Amino acid sequence: MSKDEKKPNVKSISEEYKYGFKTKEKYKFKSDKGLTEEIVRAISEFKKEPEWMLEFRLKAYRAFKKMPMPWWGNTELLNTVDFENIHYYIKPEKDHKKSWDDVPEEIKETFDKLGIPEVERKFLAGVTAQYESEVVYHSIKKEFEKLGIVFLDMDSALKEYPDLVKKYFGTVIPIHDNKFAALNSAVWSGGSFIYVPKGVKVETPLQAYFRINAQNMGQFERTLIIADEGSDVHYIEGCSAPVYSSDSLHAAVVEVIALKGARIRYSTIQNWSNNVYNLVTKRAVAYENATVEWVDGNIGAKFTMKYPAIFLKGENAHAEVLSVALAGDDQHQDSGAKVFHLAPNTTSRIVSKSISTGTGRASYRGWIKVNKGMKNCKSDVRCDALIFGKSRSDTYPRMEVYEPTTKLTHEATVSKIQEDQLFYLMSRGLSEDEASTMIINGFFEPFTKELPMEYAVEFNRLVSMEMEGSIG
Amino acid sequence: MSKFFEIKNLKVSIGDKNIISDLNLTLDKGTISTIMGKNGIGKSTLAYAIMGHPLYQTEGEVFLEGTEILSLPVHKRAQTGIFLGFQHPIEVPGVTVVKFLQQAYKALKGNIDYTKFQKSLSEWMEFLNIDKSFLYRYLNEGFSGGEKKKLETLQLLLFNPKLAILDEPDSGLDVDALKIVGQGIKKARENGTTVLLITHYQKLLDFLEVDKVFVLNDGKIAIEGDKSLAETIEKHGYDFVLAKA
Hints:
The complex is a heterodimer.
Chain A (H helix, E strand, L loop, with lengths): L9 H8 L9 E4 L6 H10 L4 H16 L8 H4 L11 E3 L12 H9 L3 H7 L3 E5 L2 E5 L3 H6 L2 E4 H7 L1 H7 L10 H9 L4 E5 L9 E6 L10 E6 L4 E9 L7 E3 L2 E6 L4 E9 L4 E11 L4 E8 L4 E4 L2 E4 L5 E10 L4 E10 L5 E10 L4 E10 L7 E10 L4 E10 L5 E9 L3 H8 L5 H17 L4 H15 L5
Parallel strand pairs in A: 3-7, 6-8, 7-9, 8-11, 9-12, 10-13, 11-13, 12-14, 13-15, 13-16, 14-17, 15-18, 16-18, 17-19, 18-20, 19-21, 20-22, 21-23
Antiparallel strand pairs in A: 1-2, 3-4, 5-6
Helix pairs in contact in A: 2-3, 3-10, 8-9, 11-12, 12-13
Chain B lengths: L4 E10 L2 E11 L4 E5 L6 H9 L5 E8 L2 E2 L5 H7 L1 E4 L6 E5 H13 L4 H14 L10 E2 L5 H15 L3 E5 L7 H16 L3 E5 L3 H7 L3 E6 L2 E6 L1 H10 L1 H7 L1
Parallel strand pairs in B: 3-10, 3-11, 6-9, 9-10
Antiparallel strand pairs in B: 1-2, 1-4, 4-5, 7-8, 11-12
């Protein structure tokens, strides 16, 4: 059986033009390459930050200088990160925009090319978007204001709600957590800040888009979400980036706090271009009866290290991590989840799904910990990997259980697309590519069904674009 | 004029193992025929090979309305108008029945008119007594034997192929499900589908009033006859009819 037509490798073409556009770079301020104490001070001064934030940054800067690189994961790739060859701060020329009309045409165009408009139109009023290292437009739905919801970029939040930010900033992920968290703490810029007051349930998901554009520019956004008692919020971020030639570092920090009885869902679709190092620290704490859900999809980036974590600190708190990864040629997706059961009767569920093709590599790295005395905790972990060709898939589960009443399950499967599945679908008129795409979309279905429709469609489209030409 | 469906000197093997050595067969348009034969004689192999399962190597020629299909990839064979009803339909996790049906319909028809598709789908589901909730389950995953066979029959009616090769559509069915599947096949023929049936059971053959009976043995069609041949087999067994051939 031969393919009726030889398809060009769409992926290699797409690397040239898929997101291969760059709008002209206009900057008000651009720091020199490399990181010094002076640059850290300059960033803080430029942003007119309070003294405590400068101190926080400086402390973090010193920690960053001292701390070693992670000694695990793909150290070969990690050690190619050249901290001296990165601009740590760039401020776009345009200032804050409140409404969509005021957003510069070329930026709109960029979002357009990323296929965002559908979502934009619908949710525009509630969107925070980040261009370069800073937010360029921002508008808040009136109803949000009425309900007391704060949804700002982090820089504005620091100005407008200094006490609230100070109370929680850096409390979930301390400066010394890891080298990249320290770096982010020193040079962070942009990101989202969300506060949902007691008992408020936000029906509309809050959304933000991030992208990087400048050559050799690091992106260090910082996100903090606080859901007060009994509240409920869903935050969605989608990332996509244009293609450029030299490596780019993305080291974000995301802190999430679900107070008593609150529920937070944080969804991400990450599609950085294939030269980005995506080294993100995401962590949540869940108090009594609270639920935190990470829904995390990684399609792009050359190298991802991301393990959304949840600390279950109150009784009956629940953690949910649903992560998917697609590793194509020359990509390494090292992702997973961590849940620490720090209170009795807490439960967690982790589902991880990965696909690797070509020379791609997908790793699952998980860590479940149950402390002694934390009675009747329950954790279910499931990892499924689908591999094509000579690609590679690894699983590194770590289970630390010090409490005998714990119920823990771990299931892992590694498989290839079954010939019989392909045959069945092809016997119904689908070409081999169409059949494979259908099977793959089905494989990711537990993830996509959790996404709002537009995102699910976009995700499936991204996956089929990535998969084209890599099957068969 | 060329024949509706014709198999000429077909040879099928898996690796070194030859399963069908020299098979010739023709079907007239609009008929229902059955291929019978002992277990393991190669009936399913024949069905899979015609559809193009990659496990089998084939030689010879197979024509549907003058188009030679053995040189085509599987999906092109389907698009030419051949449908294979699976004895054991394959599970595809995460793909909903409705999504699958839509995409297949589109692939087979070249385009899809959603209004027409919806209408046709609802009609056939009602005809086969299939509940709406069925559409949102994952393809064949966790289906009972009866549900799987009903879904195959639903596809048969919805896609309305020129030729349907049905591999034991009656196996593992209770009386009620058997009746529904039988009615589905009958309906398909009324709608213009030519049927080639693989079965062991007289019951379905009686119900469908088959036109032709082929007995497969030793890699080829050993005997060809009308429905009385099936009755003789039912009564006396394969060895009896084969000895007489």
